[in-house]
Design brief:
Low-confidence stretches: 28-34
Largest sheet: 4 strands, antiparallel
Number of strands: 7
Strand order of the largest sheet: 4-5-2-7
Radius of gyration: 30 Å
Strand content: 25-35%
Order of helices and strands: HEEEEEEE
Number of helices: 1
Structural class: alpha+beta
Oligomer: single chain
Distance between the termini: 96 Å
Number of domains: 2
């Protein structure tokens, strides 16, 4: 009987030893693989771009409180996204939307910003700037914004 108990103990020790060696070797391999490869980024870069509006995009024919700009992107996808970045004329209640448009034979996106009050004109002490981040699905480029003159 003691020989059988000894054989079971030996088997158990061998099994534990092999398992320990396997776990340690996988851990070492995993650590080395992490050191060699960069950390993956989950998802795809969305291709958004910074855009800055100035007095040139204030649509004075509508109101001094409306910025309406066209950004050529070579896309007419209805999927666009705009977020506010920075401005020297930030006001609570400002709203923004975007939509696909064509202007001057170029495909792109129209961005409209409604301010609750008039944008002050530029002078020696003030130069209007309003920055956004713009994403337009399938955009190949983000041209400089121009005043939107279409419908």
């Amino acid at each position: 009987m003691s020989c059988i108990k000894m054989t079971n103990r030996v088997r158990l020790l061998v099994a534990v030893g092999i398992t320990t060696i396997l776990v340690l070797s996988v851990g070492v391999w995993h650590t080395q693989a992490q050191a060699r490869t960069p950390i993956p980024i989950f998802g795809w870069p969305i291709g958004a771009a910074p855009v800055e509006f100035t007095q040139a995009q204030v649509n004075v024919s509508e109101s001094r409180s409306v910025v309406r700009a066209f950004v050529a992107t070579d896309s007419l996808s209805p999927n666009c996204l705009v977020t506010f970045r920075d401005s020297n004329f930030a006001q609570a209640g400002t709203s923004v939307f975007c939509g696909p448009r064509e202007q001057g034979g170029h495909k792109g996106v129209m961005v409209t910003v409604f301010f609750p009050g008039d944008v002050p004109p530029d002078d020696a002490n003030f130069t209007f700037t309003f920055q956004i981040t713009l994403y337009h699905e399938f955009a190949r480029r983000y041209a400089a914004p121009v005043l939107f003159t279409g419908q």
